[in-house]
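Chapter summary example: a protein plus iron/sulfur cluster.
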Amino acid sequence: MNYTPAQTIPEGEYQLAAYAYGKDYHDVMKARLRELMAVIASLQPRPRPLSLREGTGWGCFVDTAPVLERYWAVQAGLGWTGRNHQLIIPRAGSMFFLGEIFLPCEVDAYDHPMPSRCGNCHRCLDACPTHAIREGEPFDAHRCLSYQLIENRRQLSPEACRVMGDTIYGCDRCQTVCPWNRFASPNTETAFQPSPDLLAMTKKDWQRLTADDYRRLFKGSAVKRAKYEGLMRNIERHSSTATAETRPPVSPTPAERNWRKSHRSRKGFFPQIPPPFFLCPLVFYPYLCSMNGTIIGLLLPFVGTILGSSFVFS
Ligand code: B12
Ligand code: SF4
Ligand code: SF4
């Protein structure tokens, strides 16, 4: 399920990873998978399964079982694992939750894995503030801000304190810089939209957040994973290092800023191709057709498209 945000928390305020803006994806997506599973079961030739409960060979999971979700998504031909270690879907990006349905039977057709389309790009490696992702090396989960700010129940690592910037829950930097996310459309799932209360939070509000406020603000949200104490630890660490000389420039990076801008008003695919290149074939096509016959005229739309794409990936 797509979780590319339609609205983002204002710049300058504390940031949460986009996946945690709305309701907990485990609940939302599992409910959808159950519906789909029931449809698939109803299409089964008799005898149909008596129930879809555990032990029948049927099951659906969203990060809720020891299943290599990215691996299976690649095997299923959905996309490839990017250098940012996220599953990237062509023309849709990486801001997708993964889930799976287990069936007790074979299906009639299977897709093929897709080769990587990262090419020579290394933006995510450059953007990662902790070097948790490095070319040719296994993912260093302990260094990752996502681990530090969500899963780590102890003190934040000194490195995380230094580079967290305004981020207080999760991290999206290796995704927001990824050119494939420029193709992403904002999600339209009501449950994934941030509440007006969350969007209105200022740094002062966060610093004064009580356990009751926290429960109200994050009812049914994935942010509950960090617990009130974890979130407040992150906020306090941020505040106490806010004046430290060692603090590097805070997020967002220019690439993140572009991404945020383009996701505030994104309507569809075409606005992503810059107008000059997009208009190129339209303006010159009739002109060149009349001057040079059809060959250049026929080639021009392709040239326009290639120029447009190279801009998108530049
Ligand atoms: C543990 C975990 C984490 C850990 C460790 C992450 C990691 N990269 O290993 C932490 C807490 C740091 C984390 C962070 C995040 N996570 Co996480 N995480 C998981 C979880 C629960 C298990 C992953 C795991 O360790 N599996 C075990 C290892 C052995 O398998 P694997 O990592 O999938 O790798 C296999 C293949 O994919 C392949 N592979 C792995 N990496 C690479 C890289 C290349 C270049 C290639 C070719 C192959 C390859 O090799 C492996 C063996 O087959 C999964 C859910 C799940 N059940 O899969 C979610 C999951 C991977 N996380 C997810 C998300 C959204 C995030 C965050 C973006 C959240 C955030 N904004 O803060 C970050 C992103 C960090 C990052 N750059 O990866 C999504 C990813 C969706 C997607 N489009 O890919 C998942 C699938 C949850 C879900 N159901 O949607 N996560
Ligand atoms: S989530 Fe942040 S810290 Fe983790 S790998 Fe991506 S950029 Fe690096
Ligand atoms: S930023 Fe570049 S290298 Fe990283 S995942 Fe995206 S396309 Fe691949």
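Key point: Residues 17, 19, 62-63, 67-71, 81, 83-87, 94, 96-98, 133, 139, 141, 144, 146-147, 151, 170-172, 174 surround cobalamin (ligand 1) (CB under 6 Å).
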